[in-house]
Design a protein that fits this description.
The termini are far apart. The strands form three sheets. A seven-stranded mixed sheet has the order 7-6-8-9-10-14-15, covered by helices on one side. The chain has a five-stranded parallel sheet with strand order 2-1-3-4-5, with helices on both faces. It has a three-stranded antiparallel sheet with strand order 11-12-13, covered by helices on one side. The longest helix has 21 residues. It folds into two domains: about 200 residues, Rossmann fold (3-Layer(aba) Sandwich), CATH 3.40.50; about 130 residues, 3-Layer(aba) Sandwich (Rossmann fold), CATH 3.40.50.2300. It has about 375 residues and is of the alpha/beta class. It contains twelve helices and 15 strands. Helix 6 links the parallel strand 6 and strand 7. Pfam families: Peripla_BP_6.
Length: about 375
């Protein structure tokens, strides 16, 4: 009888341990708050991931140096998603189910963030992307807000509107060709937004062409685009392909303004395209390091001191998104994922480097954008656009 009773108790304990391991749930720790970092540290957009990660680590370092949050040290548990959607989902699973993080920062790109979303939703752990601009990250196809998905940047439709308005009102363009990365949700979503706004402003889209990520030779398509004689060419894509497209376009004698979005923001674009070819190009971005706001000046100084390089917009957004999450944890008074989620939803008038941040009902920030012009290989502030 005693043996039978012990067997029953043992089975019960095993069952309880299995059940406890099924859901997520960040384990409460008296000394640390564990935050997951799901980043593109290798692969096609690794520079974006590293820059954003640097901004996040700087914000966390400053918070820890100031005594931590809720009397605890913030620990960032990193995972490399290798710039691939499937790996982003794997990284999310590891961070949430194995590392037991209270919230997750990243991924950086829209496609990777979307791939990681279901894991965060299923396990009820907030995911905050610093730079994923696709609308589907926070709102699903049925128009329902994803309760555990948030972002620290403006959304694609706003970038599309910004660049369409810039094209028609500042450059006085009447015709445009759109050249997209058909393998990227980011690129396709921006193209839709630009098209809608450009035509609404009286412009005409006279051509649409596509390429794939990692393509090398764009001259055949660019020759076709050149024959259309458009006033501007809109290329909403990432720096590696954009750099090659810009270089080859100029070699073919395409001298019209080339327009893009925040995916252009990387120093390597100059290495790839060359300084001359990038003249007469413009792209939307989240902030400008030339801004003389004291907060921007201090951030740039602190970042340079920490990493010995100037911060990009991805660095600034990483920093700001970490500040947003830290602020939410403070207001939540807890590292419980559900309480953090509730606090994130109530983020209002938070002063960060890229401006004053308030989350709307769709978990998207209401904030400004800037248009940057490339001149002799350097980014020059062109104009600021308010929402």
């Amino acid at each position: 009888m005693k043996k039978k009773w012990l067997g029953v108790m043992t089975s019960a304990l095993v069952l309880m341990s299995l059940v406890a391991g099924c859901g997520n749930s960040a384990t409460s720790n008296d000394k640390e708050i564990r935050i997951g970092g799901n980043f593109e540290l290798t692969g096609g957009v690794a520079d974006y991931g590293k820059q954003s990660l640097n901004g996040i680590m700087l914000a966390i370092k400053e918070a820890n140096d100031a005594g931590g949050v809720l009397g605890k040290k913030i620990v960032l548990v990193q995972a490399d998603n290798k710039s691939e959607a499937s790996e982003a989902a794997n990284a999310a699973t590891k961070l949430i189910t194995q590392d037991k993080v209270s919230a997750m920062l990243g991924p950086i790109t829209s496609s990777n963030a979307i791939a990681a979303l279901q894991i965060s939703q299923d396990n009820k752990v907030p995911l905050v992307t610093p730079t994923g601009t696709n609308t589907k990250i926070t709102v699903d196809d049925n128009g329902q807000v994803r309760p555990y998905a948030f972002r620290g940047c403006f959304i694609d439709p706003f970038q599309g509107i910004v660049m369409a308005n810039f094209a028609t009102k500042t450059l006085h363009a009447k015709t445009a060709v759109i050249y997209i990365d058909s393998s990227s949700d980011y690129s396709k979503n921006l193209a839709e937004s630009f098209t809608e706004s450009f035509t609404k402003n009286g412009g005409q889209i006279i051509g649409k062409e596509a390429f794939l990520q990692k393509d090398q030779d764009f001259k055949a398509t660019l020759t076709k685009i050149k024959s259309l004689n458009a006033d501007i060419i809109f290329i909403p894509a990432y720096y590696e392909e954009v750099g090659k497209i810009v270089k080859q376009a100029r070699e073919l004698g395409i001298n019209v303004p080339l327009l893009g979005t925040d995916g252009w923001d990387n120093a390597k674009i100059t290495e790839i395209a060359g300084t001359g070819p990038l003249n007469n190009t413009f792209f939307s971005n989240h902030y400008s390091a030339e801004d003389k706001d004291p907060r921007v000046v201090k951030f740039v100084e602190d970042y340079k001191k920490e990493y010995n390089e100037a911060p990009s917009a991805f660095s600034a957004l990483g920093y700001d998104t970490a500040l947003m999450l830290i602020d939410a944890i403070k207001r939540a008074g807890s590292d419980d994922p559900e309480k953090i989620r509730e606090a994130l939803e109530k983020t209002k008038d938070l002063q960060v480097v890229t401006g004053i941040l308030t989350l709307d009902a769709n978990h998207n920030p209401i904030k400004s954008a800037v248009v940057v012009e490339m001149k002799d290989g350097k980014q020059v502030f062109k104009e600021k656009v308010n929402p």
